[in-house]
Structures are given as C-alpha cells and as structure tokens.
Amino acid sequence: MSDAMQETGAVLEARKAYNETLRIKADQTRATWFPITIMILLIALPLLQFTGNYNYLLHMVLLTASYVALASSWNILGGFAGYISLGHNVFFCIGGYFAGMLVARYGWSGIALAPLAGLVAALFGYVIGLITLRVRGPSFIISSIALVMIARLLFDHWKFVGGANGVTLPPTELSVQWAKLPYYYAMLFIAAFTVWCSYKIKHSKFGLGLRALSKDEIKAEAAGIDTRFYKVTAFALSAFFVGMVGAVWGEYLTYIRPSIFLVILIAAYMVLMCILGGKGTIAGPVIGAILLTAFNEFFVATMGASELNILGTGVIMAVCLMFFPHGIVGSLARKGRLPRILNWD
Amino acid sequence: MEQIIQVAVLGIGLGGVFALMGAGLSLVFGVMRIVNLAHPSLIIGGAYLAYWGFRIYGIDPLIMLPVCALVLAATGVLFYKVFFERDAKSATYSEMTVLLTFAIAMIVEGALGAAFSNTQRVTSPSYATDAFFIGNVFIPKGQLYAGITSIVIIGLLAAFLKFSRLGYAIRATTQNREAAALLGVNVNMVGLMSFAIGIGLAGAAGALTSFVFSFFPAKHWEWVAVLMSLVVMGGMGSILGTVVAAFSLSIVAAFVGTWIGSTWSTMTFFLALFLVLLFRPQGLFGEKPELV
C-alpha cells in the first residue's frame, strides 16, 4: 500500500469517527421513545376487542396506517429525489392485483404475498422509471398521469382480471370480532417498516445522493453521482412499499377492481399528505396521513357527497401549497419550533 | 379506400377540437411555465355554460362561443390574481404550480359536480346529429363545424401572435423571459394577458366540445392526459407543435379506433407520449432538451 493511499485511508477513518460522534449527539436529542410508545399502544389496541366492539376504531387505525405507508413511500421519490409523481397508484394497483389474483385463484394469503407483490411492483417501477425518469419537472409529472390512464384502460378491459368489474376475493373465516386483526397488524407492520426504511434511506449515502440530485441534477451528476441509477432505484423502492400496501388492502376489502386503485384521488392523497406534513421529512407524511384521514372522516360525516369531498381536498391542497409549501413539520423546523417528539429526521 | 378517407375525415374533425384545446395550454406553458392541469376542467366549465345557454335560452353553442370565451377569460384573470401572481423565481416554481393547478382542477371539478351532478350531458343543436354525404363519405355536421371553427380560431391566434404588438411581446417572453423584460416588455402584464387568452381558448373549446362530446365534471381527467401528451409531443410551449401533434395523433387515433377497437383509440395518445419521452424528450418542435 502506497503512502498516498494510507493517507486517504486515515482521512476516511477520521471522517467516519467524526460522523459517529455527530450521530451519537443527534441520537441523544432525539425522542426515539415517542414513536416506540405509539407503536406499543397501537399493537396493544386490539385488546379492546375483549371489552366490546371497536371495529370502527381498528378500521380507522388500519386506514391511517395504509396512508402512512403510501405517503412515506411516495416521499422517497417525491420528497427526497424531488420527482413529483401523480401516478403512484399504478403500483398500488399492481400490488393489489398480483396478490389478489393469487388469492382468488389459489387461495393463498394476501398478507404473506405482500413482499412478493411489492417486488413485482418494484420491478414494474424500475422498468417504467427507466423510461419516464429521462425527463424532469413538468414532463415527468405529465408522464405519470398518462401512466394512470394507460393502466386504467388496460385493467378496465383485461378479461383475465375481470375487467371493470374486478374480482371478488374469498372473505376471511374469522369471526367478526377478530376479522380485522391480521390486516390490522400487517398494515401496522408495513407502515412502521416503511417509515423506518425511509429514515434509513434518508441517512444513507444513497439518500444523500437523492437529496443532491433533487437540488440540482446536473451538479450532482458532475459530482460523480450516478443520477440515473439513483433516481430509478428510488422509483422502484417507493413502488415496492406501495405495492405491499396494495396487496394487503385488496385482500382486506375482499374485492379488487380498477375503480378502487386507479382513481386520481388516491394519487392526489399521496401528494397531499406529504405536502401537508412536510415533503422530505420523516414525520411529515405520518402527520399528513393522520390529518387527511381526520379531514376525510369529517367531510364524509358532515357533507357526505363525494363532489364536496373532492372540492374540500382541492381547497386544502391549494391553501397548503400557497401558504405552507414546507408543510407542518418543515415549517416548524425552519422556525426552530419543532417539538422534540416530532423530530424524527 | 373510401373507408380510409372516411376515417381520416373523422380524425381531422376531432383533431381541430383537440388542437384548440391544446393551443391554449401550450400558450400558457410557453409564457408562464405553468403546466395547467386545470385547463381541461375549465373546458368542461365552458361546456356547461354553452349547455345551459342552449337549454334555457335556446342559444346556439356556436353563438355562445364568444360569451364562453369571455367568461372563462375573466375566470382566468381571477385565477391568475388569486393563485399565480407570486414570485416566479423559485427553483421549484414549475413543479409547485403543477400541483397547484392539480388542486384547482379538483376544486373546479368538485364545484361543477356539486352544482350540476355527475350525469352525462350533451348540447343538441339540430346539426349535432346531422351529416353531409360526399359520395359515400359521411361527414358529421357537428364535427365539421367544430373543426372549422377551431381552425379559424387557431388562425386568428396565429395572426394575433404574429402581427400584433402584444403578440410580439408574448413571443418574446416565451423565448426568453429575462431578455424580454430587459427590453422593456412588461412580463407580468404579458403573463396575465396570455393566461387570460389561454383560458379564453379553453372556454371556446368548451363551447365546441359541448356538442361534439358528451361531458360530465369528472371527464376532464380523460382529457388531461390526452392534451398533455399533445403538448409534450409538440415540444413544451410550441403552439405549432401542439397543433401538428393534435392533427396527426387524432387521425392515427381514428384509425386505431376503427381497426382495433374504439376503447383503444385514446391509448394512441399515451403511447405516443411515452415514445416521444423515449426517443425525443424535447418533443417535435422543442428546442433545448430540459434534461436527457
């Protein structure tokens, strides 16, 4: 080994040690106990079923968890890499249909199939990303909308998967009291896993590369980042988690059809949750998902009509974009007012 | 042979309407760098105006057309003042405005849906279901009139951009915003005017649409991808490119619809979009590749 190489090695060692001290310091100020406590509470929540029927509560938590997973995985591409996709529900659909068809034909378990469904969605994401990620900004967003339209046309007319009517899946054999539990835990686990992964990604070299290319892709390329590989991988990764959610969601509803997965409102929700909470932060999508579920329940309970729901969603989105473009977590962090329990970055 | 001419005629008729829809979109993008996803929902708004004008007062949609254009242009000014008249210098401006127009599209769709419900409507003046015959070629009057009106309007737009003072300013701003501002063009005013004109064109297209297609508030999602693919294919911001793309793709789509099946004809536009992204990301008439 030459001297020069040894020297570089020493510099790298020193850098590593310095980073380690930074990490420890950050860890000491982070309130890791908060998400863990919430998780434990949510895991224990189904115990309530012994005392009565809390299926509505469980359903709301399940729904929120699925939104958390969807928003967090959208955040990997939209928040970290800065590529705004309005067509991520395509992967939701692919995951749902892949697992759903195997459930319907062979009676396999959708929950067990979820990782595989995620992989299939990621594979599609990789191939689609190779084409659509060639352009950035407006053209990319447009191509993502076109993707939804293509998928909708295909799934509406594909006889094998039942066309527009979809496929009915066998209902669970558990009693009403316990029927939701497997899906509840599966979704909770997927949500927690997605948030944890997005944390890990943000703090890896890969995540750093993504954030660099979101600021200025040409400079990032010049700095030696393989931007093409990075963004396509980010696309595939975010498709992976969305596909997993789709697999569990389809089996939970006991039917799959294009109008569940491939409506523009779902894509809008993914974007809205991230913007509401704070794009590019870890806690943002979680906060956004909780708020959006609450808004939705409120709208449906007070106004009912789905047109007003669309109107309300649009108004909230416009107000957020115009006045809080950094979202709740992002704005608070910029002012240095972010409570410690929400600082998950 | 006759069948080929027949299909081509139908394609050209639709192409005119799509060209008019796309021209406004392209103009707004060229000057303001706003990808207006709300454009199709505003077209639906114009269509409703023409529809109610016909239903309540019996006014022909072709006569309602200038009214629709003016009302929508006024709406455009309002939207511009409320939503877009802010600092356009931010790096993520064009991405943020895409999301903002997405939200506006939802607001317009929700408002129209709440007001008029989601039933399918179509304006039915006598010519909408009538047709000419030249030999055995059948030319539906509705599409013919709509196509001719669109071509006339696009011609007027082209003349306006080519010869008027404001047209010069608009073209200058499209080419280079900073340089235009340096030479004394009031770029904010130009932005406002071109936004109003673009949305006014949406209103005009809406009046034509109201008797060519049946429509309902959620229909605009079907068009948004079609129109956007025209704009991307033409080269973002090139009105000529958009018009060329509209006519060529509509004709291809008409053939696909006849020979393969009408459900697949819209697929033509989306596949064309992906092919363009693959092989020529800057579009047919686009100048600089944004990022390849």
TrEMBL record, chain A:
Pfam families: BPD_transp_2. One of its GO terms (molecular function) is branched-chain amino acid transmembrane transporter activity. Keywords: Cell membrane, Membrane, Transmembrane, Transmembrane helix. GO terms for cellular component: plasma membrane. It is a multi-pass membrane protein. It is found in: Cell membrane. The chain crosses the membrane at residues 31-50, 56-77, 89-108, 114-133, 140-161, 181-199, 229-249, 255-275, 282-304, 310-333. Its main location: membrane. This is High-affinity branched-chain amino acid transport system permease protein LivH.
UniProtKB/TrEMBL annotation, chain B:
Keywords: Amino-acid transport, Cell membrane, Membrane, Transmembrane, Transmembrane helix, Transport. One of its GO terms (cellular component) is plasma membrane. Pfam families: BPD_transp_2. The chain crosses the membrane at residues 7-31, 61-84, 96-116, 144-161, 192-216, 223-256, 262-279. One of its GO terms (molecular function) is transmembrane transporter activity. CDD domains: TM_PBP1_LivH_like. It is found in: Cell membrane. It is a multi-pass membrane protein. Belongs to the binding-protein-dependent transport system permease family. LivHM subfamily. This is High-affinity branched-chain amino acid transport system permease protein LivH. It comes from Flavimaricola marinus. The gene is livH_3.
